[in-house]
Design goal:
Blueprint: H1 3-7, E1 13-16, E2 27-28, E3 34-35, H2 40-51, E4 56-59, H3 65-73
Parallel strand pairs: 1-4
Antiparallel strand pairs: 2-3
């Protein structure tokens, strides 16, 4: 079966955050706040998948309010 045909079978997406949407770096502020960076193109792809009707799940061991807000803003 061709790869394109396999992609047509995809019904949902499940992603981890660290190392998938981030570059595996964490910035630490002087106050001790941990800050991650995410690529804007990943956000564009997530938003396009949401618009296309795909269910998306995000799993992470962290409890970052910034990560929750980022994905909520993208429609997840």
């Amino acid at each position: 079966m061709a790869y394109l045909e396999l992609f047509r079978q995809v019904r949902a997406f499940v992603f981890d955050v660290d190392g998938v949407f981030t570059n595996n770096e964490v910035l630490v502020t002087e106050e001790g706040t941990l800050v991650r960076t995410m690529h804007i193109r990943d956000g564009y792809a997530i938003k396009a998948a949401v618009r296309a009707g795909y269910p998306i799940a995000i799993i992470t061991g962290g409890k970052s309010e910034g990560v929750k807000k980022r994905f909520a803003d993208l429609g997840v």
